[in-house]
Amino acid sequence: MEIDLAELPACTRCGLAATRQRVVVGSGPATAELVLVGEAPGREEDEGGEPFIGRSGRLLFRLIEEEVGRTRAQCYVTNTVKCRPPGNRVPARDELAACRPWLLAQLASLAPRVTLTLGLTAAREVLGATLPMGRIHGRPRHLTTGTGVATYHPAAALRDPSLVEVVRADLRVVRSLLEAA
Ligand code: URA
Fold first, then answer.
1. Is residue 125 lining ligand 1, measured as CB closer than 6 Å?
2. Which CATH number goes with the domain that contains 96?
3. Can you say whether the dihedral through the CA atoms of 139, 141, 146, 149 is positive or negative?
4. Given CA atoms 115, 36, 56, 92 in this order, what sign does their dihedral have?
5. Is the dihedral of CA 174, 63, 68, 103 positive or negative?
6. Cβ(80) – ligand 1 distance below 6 Å
7. Best mutation site among 46, 56, 151 for ligand 1, i.e. most ligand atoms within 8 A of its Cβ?
8. Residue 129 Cα, ligand 1 centroid: separation in angstroms?
9. Which residues contact 167 (CB under 8 A, 6 or more apart)?
10. How many domains is the chain partitioned into structurally?
């Protein structure tokens, strides 16, 4: 059955619908060459309705501007699940499964050149990763549309500043993929 992304803002496919304030669909141009996929909306995103508008988003977009040379306005940003898990817990298996058709439909419609996943949940969902982040980050993988690259979640880089340099190096991989003819 075809999924209609116009119905996403009213989704009730999982239990998160009962506790969310807003469905955080995603933001950015439909023509974006670079798509970012995080884990799940946090409190600020649940209130504001946009992904990555809190502290980790500010770090993320500073690093993307510096290393990839693109602004937030040039990227499409979304998450593996579109509703905030209570207490910011990791999304449960059934929640990820319920939201997967939306994410797949978004990626199919955007058809980006590069999809950058942030953190292990997104790497598993989008890239089918099975190994720890230390083994998979910064390595391009072929996707149905374009190329996928995993990096650490910016919240992890806020907790452990030594990861900032690792994320920067992964972002330089993204830049070279976008610059390749
Ligand atoms: N963390 C995420 O993974 N996504 C957001 O939108 C905000 C914080």
1. no
2. 3.40.470.10
3. negative
4. negative
5. positive
6. no
7. 56
8. 19
9. 63, 151, 152, 154, 157
10. 1
| Residue 136: domain span | 5-179
Is the CB of 38 inside a 6 Å radius of any atom of ligand 1? Answer: yes
Q: How many CB atoms lie within 10 A of CB 111?
A: 16
Q: Say what the pTM is.
A: 0.98
In whole angstroms, give the CA distance from residue 111 to residue 107.
Answer: 6
Q: Is 39 in the pocket of ligand 1 (CB under 6 A)?
A: yes
pLDDT per position as a tens digit, 47-88? 999 999 999 999 999 999 999 999 999 999 999 999 999 999
For residue range 89-130, what is the model confidence (pLDDT) as tens digits? 999 999 999 999 999 999 999 999 999 999 999 999 999 999
159 CB-near residues (< 8 Å, 6+ apart): none
Q: Contact 147/111 with Cβ under 8 angstroms?
A: no
Going by C-alpha positions, the residue among 88, 100, 92 that lies closest to residue 8 is 100
* Half-sphere exposure (Cβ direction) of 14: Cα atoms closer than 13 Å: 22
